[in-house]
User: Fold this.
Amino acid sequence: MMIRISMTSKLMALLSAAIVLAGCSSQVRGTGEQGMSDEEIAAKNDSVCKSFGLQPGTTAYTDCLLKLRTDRSRGTKS
Assistant:
């Protein structure tokens, strides 16, 4: 006996799966800094900016730190 599934049912199942997966994706995005202290985040930001060859005390280094803070507050990644 063959069960026929309507196109609407297939579409609803696909959309439901997409919504669930999108929710999972948005939760994973911010996990890199969850649970980190302010000092740990500052050390991470310092490391990232130095890895670009920027020297503490320069305008470029300060701009790098500011961009990382801004990106974090917006919930984006650099």
Notes: The longest helix spans residues 7-29. DSSP finds three helices and no strands in the chain.
